[in-house]
Amino acid sequence: MNAEPWLALLAGELRRQGLADPQVATVVADVRAHLRDSAEDPYRAFGAPERYAAAVAESLRGPASHARPVGPVRLQADGITKRYGRRQVLRDVNLTVRAGQIAAVVGANGCGKSTLLNICAGLISPDAGTVTVHGTLSHSPQDGGTAPYLLPDEHFALVGAGKGLTRDRSRTAGRARAGELGWQDVGATLAGQLSGGTRQKLNLVMSTLTEPDVLLLDEPYQGFDRGAYVNLWQQLWRLRDDGKAIVVVTHMLNELDQVDIVLDLTEANS
Amino acid sequence: MLSAVDLDRRNQWLRGILDLCVLALLARDESYGYELGQALERAGLGAIQGGTLYPVLLRLQRTGCVTTRWQEGDGGPARKYYRITDAGRDCLARDGEDWLGFAASVAKLLDEGGGP
């Protein structure tokens, strides 16, 4: 049984999980030694590479650390209430997010997740309640803020210009962020011709490029494959470590143990 | 041969106790991954796949319960040996006692319930 193809896949998945090269080498060497001793099929002994890589990463990381320092309050939403006609969408919702925290907003379809995010972004007004933002804010809406007839680099330049970055600096920074999301070949394709998943990455890069203090993301993984999804969370954890306050609207529950705050609007409104 | 349901239940038990079983083995003597797997199976815990065992070893290493060293075999390949630390022995003594108390309670319950 030649285990090398499996080991190569494992190494890639471990890097994707954010392990440093020496750690990757150690883990791969352990598995190789075990397979040599046991003469087993790697899929039988260790399962699928991505699942084993995730188990290893969890063992090395430990449970989500509660000791992480958090900073000052960046976003505070108090008593947010919103109706559309006779339909009550949000009732007295409260959310406080500090620098260095990720809040996940979850709940059934139509329970007001996007409405809450739009209120936090200042795009719509609540019927009651206040939102206070300390610092700069960036909002990545669900249906994209991309321009179909511009190149990705032009999007980076446009957003960067708002922060006084030169075209070159914007492009370099934008492409670096794109690379973190596994989007390598940022080339001569107009935004309108990108796949849905890649356009969503463009959307994400634009919202993080300006280094906002508060980042609002509305289901930021639409069209992502599993690899891109892992990359996204790696990037969010890095941004959190950099002291950003992040709010993610999501219906994916499997990452909830990695966030700091969970706001379930299904409960909050019932 | 265990059914899938039995196997699933057994895996859930192992999740809570495998680290202590590994520490108990290492308290006797240092060992390497494959050998530990074999010893656990011989001890009656069923086949422990590498995919289950090595994450536990990594966790024990991270928490300082074991240390590792590579040793050249006699003519064979080099192997990574795991050795229990003082912290590992403390953990084994403390958490092992907790488990024995818990297992005794379970046994009493099952017994009173007209178990096996």
TrEMBL record, chain A:
Q: Which SMART domains did the record assign? A: AAA
Entry superkingdom: Bacteria
- UniProt source species: Luedemannella flava
Residue ranges of every copy of the ABC transporter domain listed in the record: 75-270
CDD domains attached here?
Answer: ABC_DR_subfamily_A
Name the keywords, alphabetized.
ATP-binding, Nucleotide-binding
Q: Which SUPFAM superfamilies match?
A: P-loop containing nucleoside triphosphate hydrolases (SSF52540)
A Pfam family (short name) is ABC_tran
Q: What is this protein called?
A: ABC transporter domain-containing protein
Give the taxonomic lineage as stored in the record.
Bacteria, Bacillati, Actinomycetota, Actinomycetes, Micromonosporales
Q: Which PANTHER family match?
A: ABC TRANSPORT SYSTEM ATP-BINDING PROTEIN (PTHR43038:SF7), ATP-BINDING CASSETTE, SUB-FAMILY H, MEMBER 1 (PTHR43038)
UniProtKB/TrEMBL annotation, chain B:
Give one Pfam hit by family name.
Answer: PadR
Which InterPro entries does this one have?
Answer: Metal_resp_DNA-bind_regulator (IPR052509), Tscrpt_reg_PadR_N (IPR005149), WH-like_DNA-bd_sf (IPR036388), WH_DNA-bd_sf (IPR036390)
Tell me the classification of the organism that encodes this protein. Answer: Bacteria, Bacillati, Actinomycetota, Actinomycetes, Micromonosporales
* Record-given protein name: PadR family transcriptional regulator
Q: What residues does the Transcription regulator PadR N-terminal domain cover?
A: 22-93
